[in-house]
Structures are given as structure tokens and as C-alpha cells.
Design brief:
CNF1/YfiH-like putative cysteine hydrolases, 5-stranded mixed sheet, 6 helices, 6-stranded mixed sheet
């Protein structure tokens, strides 16, 4: 059993990063939300979510910066953060600002530079990817993109992410390279969010791209999945500098 995931990437020593799973210890959510749901708008008991969030903050000795995610392309500066701000990405340039995003099939992306001077967390669902949120995050970080590392956290895999023709055309009409991120499986198009993200990060100049070997839909033991369960919880990806 995996309680949390530590990214396997060559991040600087001062950069801390992790992804929670639903098996994270000390969670008190029940039913569809068992065990460690962190999504305040998921329909779970607010008291349970609050207790889970407090437990996480205690464990990392820091306060995660919770965003009100809206599937857009806004990336905020953690130094200008206020409670419940509407955004889908957060970048930090000072220590102990814990950039945090939630997901349950959408793709969480963590970023840092090789010098350990900045970090970012991005919630990259298909709408955010299509709107260019990863490019926005790269620009927000104020360093050459070639110095950045990216880690792709737990998301739905291509095998389980069926989409229609209009969905595919949204991407391919913008850039023919996206055709490689779609495949016909069982007479239906399936999208690969990981590959779409890799294409965008590569185009933005990010050379070090890691992660991407998860499936939230297939792994019900460890991950919440909206496509699988409908009303369900959220896991978190966090990154910060010591």
C-alpha cells in the first residue's frame, strides 16, 4: 500500500514535493470519500475534509495554499495568495509557501528549477491544457524554461479516458502534434493527458519531464477518480522550498 508518493526526479535538495493517496494515514473521510479526501467542494463532510487538511499541514510542518480550482489557466503568485482564490496554478519564490493542487483524474503537474529558486503546482485538466495553463506556469516562474523540471502526478490514463471526435479536434486543430496523443480504442477516441502535457512542456522548452506512470481510474485502492465513481474525493499534489 502506498500512503503518499514522492516524485522520482532530480530536484534540488531544498525542494520538497509529494502526492497524497486515499490511504494517507490519519484520514477520517467515509463512504465514497474514504479515507483521506482533501476536496472541500466534493460533497464530503466539511468537518472531515478540514480535519484531513489539518493533518496534512501538521505532517509537513507547513500550511498548503488551497486554491478554488475552476479549470482555467490562471496561475497565481503564492506571495499574493488569499483564501479561496480562483486559480488552477500556484508559483512560489520564497521558502515555506506550499503550492497545492487537487485532482481526481485531471493531471497535476509540479515544477521547479534546477537551482531551487522557484516551484509551482498546476491543475491541468483538459480544459486547462487546451487553454495553455502549462505555458502560463512556465512563464510565471521567471527563469529560463531550460532550467525547469516537471513531474506529472497521478491522472487518468489513456486506456480509460474515452473522448469524442469534437474533443480530439479541439486539440489537433490547434497543433497537429497532438494527434499522437490520441488513439482509437474500441471504436472510440481515447486521450492521453500525459502526452498532451509532455508536448506542451517540450514546446515551452522544459527538457526534464518525469512521472506519468499512474492511472487514477484503474487504481481505486490509492486514488479517487471522478470518471470511475462520480461523486468522490480529491487527492493533492504539493511542492515547496525549505
Amino acid at each position: 500500500m502506498i500512503e503518499c508518493i514522492k516524485p522520482d526526479w532530480p530536484a534540488p535538495h531544498n525542494v520538497q514535493a509529494m502526492a497524497t493517496t486515499r490511504l494517507y494515514p490519519g484520514g477520517i473521510s467515509e463512504g465514497n470519500y474514504i479515507n483521506f479526501n482533501l476536496g472541500i467542494y466534493s460533497g464530503d463532510s466539511p468537518a472531515a475534509v478540514s480535519a484531513n487538511r489539518d493533518k496534512l499541514a501538521e505532517d509537513i510542518s507547513g500550511q498548503p495554499l488551497w486554491l478554488h480550482q475552476v479549470h482555467g489557466r490562471s496561475v497565481i503568485d503564492a506571495g499574493e495568495h488569499f483564501e479561496d482564490i480562483q486559480a488552477d496554478g500556484c508559483a512560489a519564490f520564497a521558502p515555506n509557501q506550499v503550492c497545492t493542487v487537487l485532482a481526481a483524474d485531471c493531471l497535476p503537474v509540479l515544477l521547479c528549477d534546477r537551482q531551487g529558486s522557484c516551484v509551482a503546482a498546476v491543475h491541468a485538466g483538459w480544459r486547462g491544457l487546451h487553454a495553455g495553463i502549462l505555458q502560463q506556469a512556465v512563464m510565471k516562474m521567471r527563469v529560463p524554461s531550460q532550467s525547469l523540471l516537471a513531474w506529472l502526478g497521478p491522472a487518468i490514463s489513456q486506456q480509460h479516458y474515452a473522448v469524442d471526435e469534437d474533443f480530439r479536434e479541439r486539440f489537433v486543430a490547434d497543433n497537429a502534434d497532438y494527434a499522437a496523443a490520441f488513439a482509437r480504442l474500441s471504436r472510440q477516441w481515447h486521450a492521453n493527458l500525459y502526452d498532451i502535457a509532455r508536448i506542451q512542456l517540450d514546446a515551452a522548452g522544459v527538457a526534464g519531464i518525469y512521472g506519468g506512470g499512474f492511472c487514477t481510474f484503474a487504481d481505486s485502492q490509492h486514488f479517487y477518480s471522478y470518471r470511475r465513481d462520480g461523486q468522490t474525493g480529491r487527492q493533492a499534489c504539493l511542492i515547496w522550498m525549505r
